[in-house]
Protein 1
Amino acid sequence: MKASGWRARIAVIGAVLAVAGCGGVDKPALPQLTPAEEQAAKGAVFAYRTQTELAVVRGTETVRAPGGFGYSSGPVSFTRDGHFAFAVESSSKTIVALGVRDGSVTRIPCECTDAVGLRGSVVAWWREPGQIMIMDLAGNEPPAPEREIVLPDSPSPLTGGSWDGAELVAATDEYVLLARVESRGLWWEKSHLYAIGAEAILPLGRVPGIDAGLSAAAGPDGHTFVLAGATARSATCGSGNVATIDAATNGVRALPTLPGECSAAYSPRWSADGSITIAARKWPDITNAPSMVDRLQSAAQGWAPVGEYPVVDMLPRTPESAIEVVAGEPTAARGNPHGVLVVHKGGAREELATQVVSLGAPTPAAG
């Protein structure tokens, strides 16, 4: 299929930009798969992350990469072709990538907290003061600048803060979504969005209710995104909110506010069938109060649990299996929710790992 939009534009720019490294990249030689490993890799593929490792499950086998992911509750991402899973270490600001087929581990110092799958096996991240950096995990070239960016003024005026960095938070063939943070320090921040397309950079501004802790996921149409975040009322309490935004028109649709005196929304997913799910935490505004976590789905009357019991994360169900992280005991309001990874298949229930924070899977079109 002929490349179009953002993908076609960046293919040309990437060919002419000079290579500029972003620190050393640890990328060992790729081992070859045996016939048995090839067969195992043909099974279901998904990934999970704990605070200390990234793992890919491929059929009956699991490959792992150590990492200092710490407090981050971000999901595990896959490259657009589904050949690599990756996550960002919060401690070292390093991308850790794990090959699905061969278990190869790549570490990319990026000075970033988020990265996105751009095309094929290419991952991308933002580097100040204005570059989209890339690296092809299937190749041998070091990180390189893909595009120089000068962000226009936000249509939402600053409200007493100053700019405090930016991150790439989601990507499609048409747009890369960037969140630029306005901060006064401590817990106060506001997120200003930009849609970076092939021919223009569209300043979208702030989305009401999506101020702090913004996370995003692409919708099935290529130009709409689902956003999750919170509006803080104090250092200990805020309201979780979810919205969709059309990058082409800047049309925003607010979804119902999450229940609970204090709440937070994160890790949104927008499935091909149109369903939107988010991870949600809620807690009372009391010192040292515990928080409850569950994954919720947008419904006609608000938000409904995706399952019969609380889960930290759950991948879209298939006729063959259900993959979920069953929630454990309540955590502190600022704690990192985690649970037991359970796979249901053919009437059987198997526990694969504990202390699991998040899940990820290739998109159905990946291969």
Protein 2
Amino acid sequence: MGNLATIDIVIFLVYFVVVTGYGIWIYNRKKSTSTGSKDYFLAEGSLTWWAIGASLIASNISAEQFIGMSGEGFFVGIAVAAYEWIAAIALIIIAVWFIPIYLKNKIYTMPQFLETRYNKSVSLIMAVFWLFLYVIVNLTSILYLGALAIDTLLGGDNLHIIMIGLLLMALLIGLGGMKVIGYTDVIQVAVLIIGGFATVYMALQIVDQRINGAAVGNAFAGFQTLMNEAPQHFKLMLDKPTTTTTTLAMPENLSVQKYVVLPGLAMYFAGQWIVNLNYWGCNQYITQRALGADLKTARTGILFAGFLKLFMPIIVMLPGIAAYVLYTKGHLPGFNGVKDGAYSAILGFLPSGLKGLAVAALTAAIVASLAGKVNSISTIFTLDIYKKYLKADATEIQMVRTGRWAIIVAMFVALAFTWTDVLGIGGEGGFTFIQKYTGFISPGVFAMFLLGMFWKRTTGTAALVGVLLGFLLAIFFNSFAVDIFGKETLLYTAFTYEKLENGVVHTITEIPFLINMGWSFFITVAVMVMISLAGPKVNPKVFAIDTTMFKVDNRTLVLIVVTLLLLTALYVRFW
């Protein structure tokens, strides 16, 4: 994979100038209107529904999707699309039932939700925890995977320079506040989609040329070739392996590794819903885009994002399957078979010009996610820690200034952790790394939010116990359950398999982490209910709920129905 040609560099520079120039124009146009903290952190009343929807997608589709999900497409296939397609349903649930509660009760941050509904202790604990998660897990993985992909495409040996460049671009946008992020995300997502689809189209043409010998590749023929050559990669539901212990010499060893990541139908009754509902509904990084809007605008924007999610697997997953077929047929001689390198391997085939567009799309996804993430970090730190515990009398200007310093510090910390891949993100596999380690806190957090919203008796004590218990249960199922209860129980089935890493064979025994999340959640909810039953019948801090706010107008209903019909068709076709 050689360096970029002149035309590629020109295309990338045009992207950079357009995004930067537009961001500066938005900043200068809006700063005379309002300079308050809510305007800076939430873009209060400024974002349109299409800007909210585009910003949600731009923030979500980042390095872990382009690189990590393409890698899982290479390894597992279309089954990984469940994360994207179930997200479409999750966004419908968020838009109809969650967002009205946030807006009705004037919630601006997730820790504020916890303080309003429960108490300050729960709020502070989770504020610190979210800051840790966003910086150490999310920010680092986005930066490392993105820089690694671009570095691979450029021929290697520039990883650290690329990391610094990505951070500087994100810093330029992030310091402008949510308004600048939201509106530049519209351009980012346009570049992302155009570049992503162009890459997929060319990848399918290459498959037709290399596998079928076509002089001029046909994308539709290439897609049919993928389905013919790798039919197992086009199954949404993975079958449960018939054996629970395998070795490298056994063909079932690979099937076990796939099932541990995506445990077939079982994950739809467990962790898959928790992953999506917690991510889209209880996550400052995501909900922040809608919290400054009115209900109609916020709801439409979220549903628009849900509709777009149906098409994301085409961009982020198909290149991985194309890489798998080309690799197994010997047409990727420079590729070592490590799944997180699959997307970069495909980009190496692209001609001059299109390669620059693909790099711009990848950069757009990375920069948008980095900017959005650090804005959420600064929002939580400033509004929920600095203002409440460090300087209660802080002025609006001081809060904005503090938020900007929080962005700079978060970026330096992320750079320090990714400089030598201290966390081992590359070895774990990017997409799995994020889902697995986020999954340690998701069960308790989602239980706390769900019961806090919709059950009047949930107490602050139950919430505190719930978030801690959910975390401890996730660790227990991940690290200790098999040693204590064995591999086969009524709750789970654990699998033992061998994995070759850097020439060393490792024997691993684990329960599928999505199953772990499911049981952690259900047990946590049960304990929280029992604790709350000992409290008052109606918690005095219960939220105000007006059932009329859950009603949707006809236009919204049509968008929901169309999304569900398309999703149903996809599952029927690829079940």
Protein 3
Amino acid sequence: MLRVGNASGFYGDRFSAMREMLEGGPLDVLTGDYLAELTMLILGRGKLRDPSAGYATTFLRQVEECLGLAVERGTAIVANAGGLNPRGLADRLRELAARLGLDVRIAHVEGDDLVERVDELGLGGSRYGRPLTANAYLGAWGIAECLRAGADVVVTGRVTDASLVVGPAAARFGWARDDWDALAGATVAGHVLECGAQAVGGNFAFFEEIYNVKASGSADVRTGFPVAEIRSDGSSVITKHPGSGGAVTVETVTAQLLYEIGGPSYAGPDVTTRFDTIELAEDGADRVRIGGVRGGPPPPTTKVCLNHLGGHRNEMTFVLTGLGIEAKAEFAKRQLEAAFGDDPPARVEWTLIGSAKDDPATQGEATALLRCAVLDPDAERVGRAFSGAAVELALAGYPGFTLTSPPGKGSPYGLYSPGFVPNEVVEHVAVTAAGKRIPIPPAQETRLAREAPLAREAPPAQGGHPIPSVERAGHTAEAKLPLVDNSPPGQPFGRPDGRPPQVDARLPQAVGEAFSGTTRRLPLGRVVGARSGDKGGDANIGVWARTDAQWEWLEPFLTADRFRELLPETREHTVRRYALPNLRAVNFVVEGLLQDGVSASTRFDPQGKALGEWLRSRLVDIPEAVL
């Protein structure tokens, strides 16, 4: 068994987590995920100022505090904190180890940075121009080679988040490149661990069942970090250190599995993992067993994260109080737009947030907010020229005029777009502690997605093939065939029980036939949980039912069409829906809702983190039989 922990889910996560995880219990490997699309942009801008920068400096400070403890405990550290400069970070770590008097073998993985090759690879001609950063999502085998060569610390640039777990598992158990099911199982464990505390109750829809939010002190509300106990067949148990905060349950794991995914075929550089084959089961207190995961060859192309400098942005927020909120909002909007004259920012977006209560007992209850966000290539146009124009309305605006902040300069923003290149053009290299360079060849076997035949059969009571559908803006829902089926011809792959894949062809009215009793109008969140997030400019909202009966109601009820009714802001966007019966879940992908990615989005929830909670708050008619 291999015990792998996580101490970071993003650049800026809890600084003390590395020490907490090393002191909290035995670990073979401690991982840290520091990179996201936005992080690569931030690191890229930093490297423009200082070519020797480009890595997560927080990681270096954490290691300075904890490296001796990791050596004492025999715990290897694997992190993607190298960002745009893994070699530079490895050098700084060697200097640190020497200063601390520690004999530590430090290796790194490189080859993901393609920015100097964008023209050669056809990545430089997008509508955004030449990218600031261009990084391929490498797989796990470079990490595995470093560990096999005896590394105590491995730092990487852009690898897939799950690779931080798959690499150590492949090194420990000696997996071959085509051990698809084992690799897929470890990928699932890695996906659960990659966002740290989210797997143990962080951001959990039913958080009040875990935390005593009314208790004094912090002991009852401080969430721990996850641990995966991985076995040689790729199966695992998700748990946490004894005494750490939060909880590990089937639902906390389900929530994380649904986070920032698309369809059930989860393609990576080493394996395509079938999320519709995952089997979860309680394995004791704060222990959830993951098994049954099937995998197949990866696709023949590698995804590339492209970040471009987009321009500058700024925002001002008006405080609206008391009567006539909508009229006050319209007045402020017209006054500021008049101040722009004939030269407004390239993009102006207004958002009215909240509403005043009737007969408010506090000023807060009487208040709503009006947010104006602006973007433009010209820093001056969205700097003091914009924010100063808002302030100048202070004595000439609506009654009760006030703002939430003083005038200020704008800030630069970036634009994210994905790219794809053939696997063989990516020069993935493991650089061992001894300085030996080991080229990592691409997967020998790859497979394009292919559609399985549409079967108009009733679905099985449990398990089953993913049920995708797509509804494009301005169109009614259309059936969409299942995604990739990676089994060889004649060997079913989409179903854990080996039976042929099936598609749920039930019509929406079937929900009325199955649950024809009394209903109550309640928030959808009374019976379902949700977790949402961003995939570049797209948003994903995963929704799961808590019981079998609730799933039988939810699956035919929450169609793409009904989803768009409940979240009207998605109506102008293409919505893709995927059902995962094995998780009692449906996942929705809303294309373009977050515009050009988190840095450029003018939405006040630019990463879509709260969309799931918005959906859960909507009132629907729920059969009493499932309450």
